[in-house]
Write a structure and sequence with these properties.
Blueprint lengths: L19 H13 L13 H7 L3 H4 L3 H7 L12 H12 L3 E2 L5 H5 L2 E3 L5 E5 L3 H8 L4 H14 L3 E2 L1 H15 L11 H19 L2
Parallel strand pairs: 1-4
Antiparallel strand pairs: 2-3
Helix pairs in contact: 2-5, 4-5, 5-8, 5-9, 7-8
């Protein structure tokens, strides 16, 4: 069991809106055509369209996004966050394996393997890329950089964590910060990333 556990910040259930994170995970499973789900997979081509999307705006025109949007409780479907949910659809279309023990920020700091199969002493997503992602200028840039990071971590991550982080980034970028500093994305990401990084850096000293 990983030391990191998913704690929802944006996907947290509210009164009358139960199971928001679960609805998102079910949407992803149907998008990927998973075998172990009750509902049938989405029509052929739905995933491919989202994977080809150039960004959030492009995703909004897709069937895959519409299915995600209307799977959300009505109170979550507000126009202010629609583009951010489009970004969620783009990123999750690029995740091949749901891993509830692999949160996005910590996964970016995992040790990259060298060609010989041993540890390289460097993270799969460099500190520079990590900082650039966090300080993206706008949603389009964040989605572009995050999609690259998803591929660098072998497209295996907790889809809830990835979605929650993007939605929180979007809110903070628009000035909606939580009163608790430890709940802010920069603090949470820095803690997860550099804690994981320290594990193998210390071993090499």
């Amino acid at each position: 069991m990983s030391e990191e556990q998913f704690t929802p910040h944006i996907l947290r259930d509210r009164d009358g809106e139960e199971g928001v994170a679960e609805r998102l995970t079910q949407w992803w499973a149907r998008l990927q055509g998973a075998d172990d789900i009750e509902e049938p997979p989405f029509p052929s081509g739905t995933l491919a369209v989202l994977k080809r999307a150039t960004g959030p705006d492009d995703a909004l025109l897709s069937e895959g996004f519409r299915r995600l949007w209307f799977a959300l409780p009505p109170g979550r479907r507000n126009s202010w966050e629609m583009r951010a949910w489009g970004g969620v659809a783009v990123l999750l279309a690029n995740v091949k394996h749901q891993d509830s023990d692999r949160l996005f920020a910590a996964a970016m700091a995992e040790e990259r393997q060298s060609s010989s199969g041993s540890g390289s002493g460097k993270p799969v997503v460099s500190e520079l890329r990590f900082r650039q992602l966090l300080h993206s200028r706008d949603l389009d840039e964040f989605v572009r950089r995050a999609r690259r990071a998803v591929h660098l971590i072998d497209q295996r991550v907790d889809v809830r964590s990835l979605a929650d982080d993007l939605l929180l980034w979007h809110r903070e970028k628009n000035g909606r910060f939580t009163a608790r500093p430890d709940h802010r994305l920069a603090v949470r990401w820095a803690d997860a990333y550099f804690t994981r990084l320290a594990r193998y850096e210390k071993a090499q000293r």
